Amino acid sequence: MPTISRDAELQTIITTFEVTPGTCQDLLDELHDAYTNFISKQPGFIGAGLHVNDAQTRIANYSQWTRREDFQAMLRSDEMRVRNRRLAELCKNFEPVMYDVFACFN
């Protein structure tokens, strides 16, 4: 399960996808399948969450990994390269960005 903490020694990735209402559910289904059957089984995977806006024009994916190298290795795998091509077909664009937690508020 993802943990948001400035002191956590992990890598956080937030990926945003720009979609249309007509492709939103298809992309969510592809992402769900990718996490269920591949990504969650990769070394260093901690947890992730998928979020969709009410207009179904944006999907945000929040994932955490033990190390950035684990995330990069997953991205470079043959299976994920094929999956990313399919994801790219279903959205206008997507961009995974690595982040460090700056602050948390409760």
Automatic annotation (TrEMBL):
Keyword Kinase annotated: no
Assigned keywords, A-Z: Monooxygenase, Oxidoreductase
Superkingdom of source: Bacteria
Domain ABM positions: 11-102
Pfam families: ABM (PF03992)
SUPFAM superfamilies per UniProt: Dimeric alpha+beta barrel (SSF54909)
GO terms for MF: monooxygenase activity
Protein name (Swiss-Prot/TrEMBL): Antibiotic biosynthesis monooxygenase
Organism whose genome encodes this protein: Rhodovulum euryhalinum
